[in-house]
């Protein structure tokens, strides 16, 4: 082997020897229903709030969205959607738990879960998450849009109460998304709050040629606003995940100036 080749070989060995260890990544698992879930292109612009959530974190956080349309706590367990998550959990991971929409649907016997059983299921999620040295976070069900005489109504009374009760009894962080989302919908107002939900006139979007009047599922804007509420609570409650929020590019963190937009979004 020539002298130069020997030097090159030694340099490669040196680089391999001093290679930095891989950055540890924490996984945030999302379990719940259609208000969180990933959507397929054919249902766009319907957006679950779990879809924009990863953009709020830096590269050390991985968001694994396992929420599924139409699932209650009971059917999520019965369909074996929970066990693979338990098996994959690593110490320090998080599980965000938000159900209620389908558990409370008495008119859908295939998914309905009485409050007592809902409570047992939440306790199971919490206990099995902790057994793997991961961190559960309970989230009350996000509101539906429902106005009466100009006031947004509470739409998940019983199931939000059970979620809060379990969180208090088990000393689990609670994100009161039900109330926070109601307050946001009220701030938008009866008409403007339609922008947060999947409200489309005929011809607005090719996926919905006859339009859509949906007061449960979110638009892109609504999903991002709900995700922002969740992130704001991480910061308010000083949950360690808040230490891993993404930072804007320096060019995008410049205060706005008068005139044309001069804040490029690319590096």
Automatic annotation (TrEMBL):
Residues 246-267 are annotated as: Disordered. The keyword Ribonucleoprotein does not apply. Residues 31-224 form the SGNH hydrolase-type esterase domain. Keywords: Hydrolase. InterPro entries: RhgT-like, SGNH_hydro, SGNH_hydro_sf. Belongs to the 'GDSL' lipolytic enzyme family. The keyword Ribosomal protein does not apply. PANTHER family: PUTATIVE (AFU_ORTHOLOGUE AFUA_2G17250)-RELATED, RHAMNOGALACTURONAN ACETYLESTERASE. It comes from the Bacteria. It comes from Hymenobacter defluvii. This is Rhamnogalacturonan acetylesterase. Pfam families: Lipase_GDSL_2.
């Amino acid at each position: 082997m020539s002298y130069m080749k020997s030097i090159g070989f030694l340099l490669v060995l040196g680089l391999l020897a001093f290679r930095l260890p891989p950055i540890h990544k924490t996984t945030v698992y999302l379990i719940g229903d259609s208000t969180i879930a990933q959507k397929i292109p054919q249902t766009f612009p319907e957006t679950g709030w779990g879809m924009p959530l990863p953009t709020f974190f830096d590269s050390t956080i991985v968001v694994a969205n396992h929420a599924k349309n139409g699932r209650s706590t009971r059917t999520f367990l019965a369909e074996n959607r929970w066990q693979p998550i338990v098996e994959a959990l690593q110490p320090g991971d998080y599980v965000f738990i938000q159900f209620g929409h389908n558990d409370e649907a008495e008119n859908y016997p295939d998914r309905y879960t009485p409050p007592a059983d809902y409570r047992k299921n939440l306790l199971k999620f919490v206990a099995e998450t902790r057994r793997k040295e991961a961190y559960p976070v309970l989230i009350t069900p996000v509101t539906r849009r429902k106005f009466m005489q100009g006031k947004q109504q509470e739409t998940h009374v019983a199931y939000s109460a059970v979620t809060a009760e379990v969180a208090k009894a088990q000393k689990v962080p609670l994100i009161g998304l039900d109330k926070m989302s109601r307050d946001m919908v009220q701030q938008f107002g009866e008409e403007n709050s339609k922008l947060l939900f999947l409200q489309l006139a005929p011809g607005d979007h090719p996926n919905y040629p006859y339009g859509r009047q949906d007061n449960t599922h979110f638009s892109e804007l609504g999903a991002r606003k709900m995700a922002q509420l969740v992130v704001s609570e991480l910061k308010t409650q000083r949950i360690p995940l808040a230490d891993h929020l993404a930072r804007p590019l320096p060019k995008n963190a410049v205060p706005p100036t008068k005139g044309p937009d001069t804040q490029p979004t690319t590096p």
